[in-house]
């Protein structure tokens, strides 16, 4: 159990601190991890470490989904046929009719020997009219996550975080391994879809589990290990690509280490928040025993329940109905519903910008590796900067500033189209701000949502947010209108999202809201509808108690 004295700040006690005091508190916060108990620290590390697998399974598509080099050549160079190749996809036969080189009797597609098995396009002939099918492999992965997110989060609130984290994790590992040995492209797409279901599933539940596994003061440091893990997986793909030309061996190499997660069955603990709200006394007692042994401080279950400052204790004082909340409860509260819609839009924009910049990062420079590796590397200092900013400023402030700065960088990139150093620097700068936003905004999202509906809320946001991920691989299509169109669209959406964040409440240093009656509707809603929010809460609770 986190020490009660470490969580003594209640919303009513928060004051505006002087800059030096803020810096002092930021420094002391970095030591908070020393006070975490064994189970919570283990959950924090395990749920973050696996993010390397998530990054690798997505970023591999930057290389294996690229259009291969090819040409249309005669099958028999010595033949005297009058047919000829009009271009690398089309053949004009002896009767002056055009046909695809893929189906020609006299011509065939030729790939350079070094790339025959380097990409999906080369091995499965995803070229010419079928070129777009290579991009589908990324989108279908995101689609799988979009489908499962709201379902899995609902199950997680009902049956616990642990198994709804582990099962998708193992499904993702097995599916990715099968992808590497898929005999045809249809099989590859099917298991790529399943891999997306598992990957987005364990990532979503893992974030909530991670948030519920640390103290109030430690939450600002949540992104630190996750960022390191993500960048490791991101960069690993690039370095492995330099050594492994075969897409199958590359995919297998990044997937097979996932088998080590079998050990998570014995290592990953259940969320204390979930156990408390569902009155899992046996699990709570086991947790307290481990915590007391590590911290060398005896703490009984009754002591925790009587503590006014213990965050988990706040949950036990809520109504029993809190454990039975569903999507319909969110729909009954207009304030919460409005924030849900805002968060869905913000998440869609964040996904579109991140994947738009990442998946096409190999096109930032003349050699594909420089742009790719730099795009991944900048996330590391961005993550460290985010941790520093989050210990000093509020979640809402950091999120809004990052989104608006991201919009400015993308807008500036519009002025420098093409492959040049200025354009690359501006897009990398946008990636830095996007990474900061990814450290702050999910934290704000998770902290503003009540525990009783947090996974449902987070799941819906994740579901709708994947629209941005699914659309990102097709941003290149906008270049047919104008080469600057993708950057301009992303800049405009980022600016709107930055303003939308300002409608959210500030959550830094506050105890997680246990149930709907603890929800903070934010400054804008409270200003225009001060009475409406309280009436919604009373009516919702009354209706729920009558069931």
UniProtKB/TrEMBL annotation:
Record localization: Membrane
Transmembrane segments: 42-65, 133-153, 165-183, 189-209, 221-243, 249-267, 333-357, 369-393, 400-418, 424-444, 456-475, 487-504
Keyword Transmembrane helix: yes
Alphabetical list of CDD domains matching this protein: MFS_SLC22
Membrane topology (UniProt): Multi-pass membrane protein
GO molecular function annotations of the record: transmembrane transporter activity
Official protein name in the record: Major facilitator superfamily (MFS) profile domain-containing protein
Organism name: Steinernema hermaphroditum
């Amino acid at each position: 159990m986190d020490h009660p004295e470490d969580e003594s700040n209640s919303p009513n006690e928060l004051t505006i601190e002087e800059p030096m005091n803020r810096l002092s508190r930021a420094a002391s916060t970095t030591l908070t991890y020393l006070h975490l108990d064994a189970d919570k620290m283990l959950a924090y590390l395990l749920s973050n470490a696996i993010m390397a697998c998530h990054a690798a399974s997505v970023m591999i598509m930057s290389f294996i989904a690229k259009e291969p080099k090819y040409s249309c050549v005669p099958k028999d160079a010595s033949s005297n046929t009058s047919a000829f190749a009009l271009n690398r996809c089309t053949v004009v036969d002896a009767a002056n009719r055009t046909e695809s080189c893929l189906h020609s009797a006299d011509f065939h597609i030729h790939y350079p020997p070094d790339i025959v098995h380097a990409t999906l396009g080369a091995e499965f002939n995803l070229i010419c009219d079928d070129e777009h099918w290579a991009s589908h492999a990324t989108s279908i992965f995101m689609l799988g996550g979009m489908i499962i997110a709201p379902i899995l989060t609902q199950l997680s609130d009902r049956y616990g975080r642990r198994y709804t984290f582990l099962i998708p994790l193992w499904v993702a590992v097995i599916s990715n391994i099968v992808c590497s040995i898929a005999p045809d492209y249809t099989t590859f797409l099917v298991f790529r879809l399943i891999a997306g279901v598992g990957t987005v599933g364990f990532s979503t539940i893992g974030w909530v589990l991670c948030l519920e596994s640390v103290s109030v003061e430690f939450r600002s440091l949540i992104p630190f290990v996750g960022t390191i893990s993500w960048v490791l997986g991101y960069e690993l793909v690039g370095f492995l690509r330099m050594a492994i030309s075969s897409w199958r061996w590359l995919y297998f190499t990044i997937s097979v280490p996932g088998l080590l997660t079998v050990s998570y069955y014995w290592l990953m603990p259940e969320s204390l928040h979930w156990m408390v709200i569902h009155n899992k006394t046996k699990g709570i007692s086991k947790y307290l025993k481990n915590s007391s042994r590590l911290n060398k401080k005896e703490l009984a279950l009754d002591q925790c329940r009587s503590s006014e400052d213990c965050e988990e204790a706040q949950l036990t004082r809520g109504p029993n109905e809190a454990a039975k909340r569903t999507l319909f409860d969110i729909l009954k509260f207009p304030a919460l519903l409005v924030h849900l819609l805002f968060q869905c839009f913000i998440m869609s924009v964040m996904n579109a910008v991140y994947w738009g910049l990442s998946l096409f990062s190999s096109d930032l420079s003349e050699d594909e590796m420089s742009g790719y590796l730099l795009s991944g590397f900048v996330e590391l200092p961005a993550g460290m900067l985010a941790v520093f900013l989050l210990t000093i400023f509020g979640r809402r402030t950091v999120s809004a500033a990052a989104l608006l700065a991201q919009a400015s960088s993308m807008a500036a990139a519009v002025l420098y189209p093409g492959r040049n150093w200025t354009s690359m620097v501006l897009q990398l700068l946008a990636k830095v701000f996007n990474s900061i936003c990814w450290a702050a905004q999910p934290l704000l999202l998770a902290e503003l949502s009540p525990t009783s509906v947090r996974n449902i809320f987070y799941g819906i946001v994740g579901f709708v947010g994947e629209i941005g991920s699914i659309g990102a691989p097709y941003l290149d299509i906008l270049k047919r209108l104008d080469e600057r169109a993708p950057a301009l669209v992303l800049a405009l959406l980022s600016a709107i999202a930055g303003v939308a964040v300002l409608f959210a409440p500030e959550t830094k240093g506050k105890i997680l809201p246990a149930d709907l009656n603890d929800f903070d509707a934010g400054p804008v809603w409270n200003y225009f509808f001060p009475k409406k929010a309280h009436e919604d809460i009373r009516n919702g609770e009354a209706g729920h108690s009558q069931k």
